[in-house]
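A brief tutorial aside. Many learners find it easier to grasp structure tokens once they have seen a single protein encoded end to end. The record that follows does exactly this for MBL fold metallo-hydrolase. Read the sequence first, then the structure, and try to relate runs of similar tokens to stretches of the chain.
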Amino acid sequence: MKIIWHGHSCFEITGKDGTIIFDPYQANSVPGLNPLKLKANLVLCSHEHEDHNARNCVETTAKDFKVTCIETYHDHHQGSRRGKNTIHIVEFEDMKIVHMGDIGCMMDDVSKLKNCDVLMIPIGGYYTIDTKEALKYIERIQPRIVIPMHYRSHEFGYDVLSTNEEFIQKSSNIVYVDDYLEVHKETKGQTIVFKKPRN
């Protein structure tokens, strides 16, 4: 399985099972990122904010996948400020992939997420959980591979978000990759930091 990061919370996973896009962003919705033009068999959007719902930017050829959805909140106030958020759990290439979307709260029950092969989790704060909360989730979920998302860099992202620097400092087994990662059942546990988005 290949995981491609297109920036922000947008990931493409592709392999013999097909291709899935998570949380594509609308053109001009994320400062510093170019418009998307992608192809996939399925598009999964965690919620309907413009930086996560650009289904129109993905040409789709439908194919069935096993997807489990968990409804959560986009804030710490039962969704009263930013609405709901959907976590997507996908079975892909005999692995369990979890995309946390724009989760902004701490869940009591993480049993469906535990021991996943890949966890994509926001760390930037303000709109979502921050690094401190993300690390608590990681400790509880025990994923094999962690990929932080929804943060700011010097080239892109919202000014109100934190960078990934604190997360890197407090994480272990950091592996830097360019804009994509190949994952197999034998891939060892690691925390992935993409050097740049494919954009």
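Self-check: The chain has a mean pLDDT of 95. If you spotted this yourself, you are ready for the next section.
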